[in-house]
Design brief:
By secondary structure, the chain is of the alpha+beta class. It folds into two domains: 134 residues, no CATH class; 206 residues, Orthogonal Bundle (MetI-like fold). It has 18 helices and four strands. Strands 1-2-3-4 form a four-stranded antiparallel β-sheet. Strand 1 and strand 2 form a beta hairpin. Helix 7 packs parallel to helix 11, helix 14 packs antiparallel against helix 18 and helix 15 crosses helix 16. The chain is elongated, with a radius of gyration of 29 Å. About 2% of the residues have low confidence.
Length: 413
């Protein structure tokens, strides 16, 4: 009897599980399947961390990213390591060392006496090179302990200009008790590469958000009207879409960037102009898929019922047809996120997008192509690693969401 009761309970529980599966909403099914994808969950956690650090970049940055936060005593400085142990013992508090600039050794007395050998040694050596002029020695006997929740440079924590809201703060996650700390080193002006990288993450992501919003609006407008109206309207809009689709995107981006360079724009205006250009020229694929979906759905019973009840065409499109395609729209938008980031980064890398002093991943990657940096300041390639992590995280999250968008296919029992 006990076995029969246990078996009945197991069957009843399984029935409840199956019932909850088939009665769950679309978003709940997508969420459940996405959480079963380990790669997608890990990539989502990494992506969330990068976005969080980018959005609150001033809080996570120990130094100001601009020239106002530059360290004139540590130009072209290598990354400063954080340690817990050294020759003097271990400490529970992390620390770094004091760095002192090395004085180049010049035999000025021999030069003054006209010694040609000394002159030859000076010109053939590296005493006059930029790298030798900015070498630093670790003072291992002078520890600088890390401190958390420190007071530093002031920044806007939350700002909405058109509402007159500007919440400011001067608190930062970490710092050192003396001087500045540079986890990724500094550039030729003494600006902190770590702080610039964090600010660049949010600038690049925000450009992608604006571009994708423009792309989504144009795609929904063109695809919705074309699929619902059909006929000549469909033929004209699809002809325009095909014309935009067959043109290679990079030359178009370059042409638009060159045109923008002839206009006197502020960095913020140029920022939004590039985002609008990227988004407006990338609507073709999603617009065609949306048009195909609406062509299939426009003759369904629920559309006919809405039409007979007196609903307008715009209401039928935006309240009935487009929401039925919402899961694919969300997935497609996330999948295209890295491609939009690549477009902005490519333009900035070529010098036709954002430029100094704006912090974006494209601007930082452009600096990395300098031969001097490649030979003497390899730590400025750190933004390249962050860029790769950001793109790969978006790719894996997009793939996981694409697999989860159809929860009934290949159901795991």
């Amino acid at each position: 009897m006990a076995g029969l009761i246990a078996r009945w309970r197991g069957q009843h529980t399984a029935f409840k599980a199956d019932e909850s599966y088939y009665t769950a909403g679309q978003l709940a099914l997508i969420k459940a399947r996405f959480l079963r994808n380990t790669t997608g969950v890990v990539a989502g956690g990494l992506l969330g961390l990068l976005v969080l650090m980018g959005f609150f970049a001033p809080f996570f940055s120990p130094n100001a990213p601009g020239i106002e936060g530059a360290n004139p005593d540590y130009r072209r400085g290598a990354p400063q390591s954080i340690q817990f142990c050294d020759a003097d013992g271990c400490s529970l508090r992390p620390f770094t060392y004091t760095y002192v600039k090395e004085v180049p050794k010049l035999d000025l007395s021999s030069l003054a006496g006209g010694d040609l050998n000394a002159l030859d040694a000076l010109t053939s050596g590296d005493s006059l090179s930029a790298s030798s002029q900015n070498r630093f020695i670790e003072q291992t006997d002078q520890r600088r302990y890390l401190q958390f929740w420190v007071q530093g440079w002031e920044y806007s924590l939350f700002k909405v200009e058109w509402l007159g809201i500007d919440i400011r703060s001067d608190r930062h996650l970490f710092g050192v008790d003396q001087g500045q700390i540079h986890l990724f080193g500094t550039d030729e002006d003494g600006k902190d590469v770590f702080s610039r990288t964090l600010h660049a993450i949010w600038v690049t992501i925000s450009i992608a958000l604006v571009a994708l919003a423009v792309k989504l609006f144009v795609s929904l407008l063109v695809g919705g009207i074309s699929g619902y109206c059909g006929g000549k309207v469909d033929a004209v809009l699809m002809s325009i879409t095909e014309a935009v689709r067959v043109i290679p995107p990079i030359p178009v981006y370059l042409a638009c960037a060159v045109a923008l360079s002839q206009i006197d724009l502020t960095p913020v205006q140029r920022y939004f102009a590039i985002a609008v250009v990227i988004g407006a020229l990338d609507f073709a694929a999603l617009g065609r898929r949306l048009r195909t979906h609406i062509l299939t759905e426009r003759n369904q019973d629920y559309v006919l019922a809405a039409r007979l009840s007196g609903a307008s065409s715009s209401r039928i499109i935006w309240r009935h047809l487009v929401p039925s395609f919402s899961s694919y729209i969300i997935v497609d938008t996330l999948i295209n996120f890295p491609y939009v980031i690549l477009a902005e980064t490519s333009l900035s890398f070529l010098g036709l997008g954002l430029t100094e002093p704006v912090n974006s991943l494209g601007v930082l990657l452009q600096k990395a192509q300098d031969p001097d940096i490649q030979q003497n300041m390899v730590w400025q390639f750190a933004p390249v690693g962050v860029f790769v992590l950001l793109i790969m995280a978006f790719v894996f999250v997009g793939d996981a969401l694409r697999d989860a968008a159809d929860p009934y296919s290949e159901r795991k029992r």
